[in-house]
Write a structure and sequence with these properties.
This protein is 34% helix and 22% strand. By secondary structure, it is of the alpha/beta class.
Length: 305
């Protein structure tokens, strides 16, 4: 019986591994086959889809693509929503409604809802779950459900070179300048100047670049070192491996040093305990001597003359 049981367990484990391998391979194939590119757009017919751009599979909700232009070398991650118009099938006229410049990155689960014009400048990167919309609900009538009141729409523009952190919300009417950092979870509306950092809900400027004084308040971390010229990708890869090995060696050295420190601390504690024992013995000896002297004195007093 044990032999049969081991055979059955081995077969079950092999079957699980085989099924997992097959599923993972099928998913990788589906990701490759289901991705949308200029050469393989599938059912999506964007007004423009630049070369080198890729919409990862599975895509989120996408409609109104006739009024959507996407530049070159963009990365649209999984489950990203891209919509033009309030509903599918609407005629939005002749002008482009949603424009993504070259090199735009939209992180996983992000939403770009363009009921009126939204423009995202080139080389703008968005973290996961960023929400950009040109439409907001209105609540003017206190007696009517908010969801049934006609929404308000205002154009949104985001300049080139920006970084939008995870969970940032860009509301209708926002006008974000170039090279702006929007902190994670910030809620942005109104105008944001170039070369600034905004955070909070509602977002406010917390740092800004001054041509004469630099960043104000000053940065707390040193600027990263630029990559030297004429460095090849192979050299960068080798440098990354070397850096990883160096960090691992430093961690190992730190662990060894910590172990030595712990041993030294134990030795010190042991020495302290021994010294404390010797001190207690000395105290006990003194107390014993004092007791003997007291006893001798008592006997001397009680001896008859």
């Amino acid at each position: 019986m044990p032999k049969n049981g081991n055979t059955f367990s081995s077969f079950a484990a092999w079957r699980r591994r085989a099924v997992a391998h097959a599923l993972q391979g099928s998913w990788r194939w589906a990701q490759q086959a289901g991705a949308v590119t200029a050469e393989h757009p599938g059912r999506l017919r964007f007004r423009r889809l630049g070369a080198g751009t890729r919409l990862a599979f599975p895509q989120g909700t996408v409609f109104g693509e006739r009024w959507i232009e996407i530049g070159e070398c963009c990365i649209i991650a999984e489950q990203v929503t891209l919509t033009a118009g309030m509903l599918p099938g609407l005629d939005l006229g002749t002008e482009t409604v949603l424009t993504l410049g070259n090199g735009v990155v939209l992180g996983r689960g992000s939403h770009v809802i363009a009921d009126t014009t939204i423009t995202i400048g080139s080389d703008t990167y968005c973290g996961p779950y960023v929400y950009i919309t040109s439409t907001n609900h209105s609540y003017d009538d206190p007696h009517e459900p908010i969801g049934r009141q006609w929404p308000r729409s205002e154009p949104v523009s985001i300049g080139p070179g920006c970084w939008l952190g995870t969970g940032a919300v860009i509301l209708p009417g926002a006008r974000i300048g170039r090279n702006v950092v929007v902190a994670a979870g910030a809620v942005v509306r109104g105008e944001v100047p170039d070369h600034s950092v905004v955070a909070g809900a509602p977002a406010r400027v917390v740092r800004r670049w001054d041509p004469e004084q630099g960043w104000q308040p000053p940065l707390r971390t040193p600027a990263p070192k630029p990559i030297p010229e004429n460095v090849t990708p192979e050299q960068l890869a080798a440098l990354a491996v070397w850096e990883l090995e160096r960090m691992e060696a430093m961690e190992a050295a730190g662990a060894a040093e910590a172990a030595e420190g712990a041993k030294a601390a134990e030795d010190v504690q042991g020495a302290g305990a021994a010294e404390a024992v010797r001190g207690m013995e000395a105290v006990e000896a003194v107390e014993a001597g004092e007791s003997a002297e007291a006893a001798a004195g008592t006997s001397a007093v009680s001896r008859p003359r």
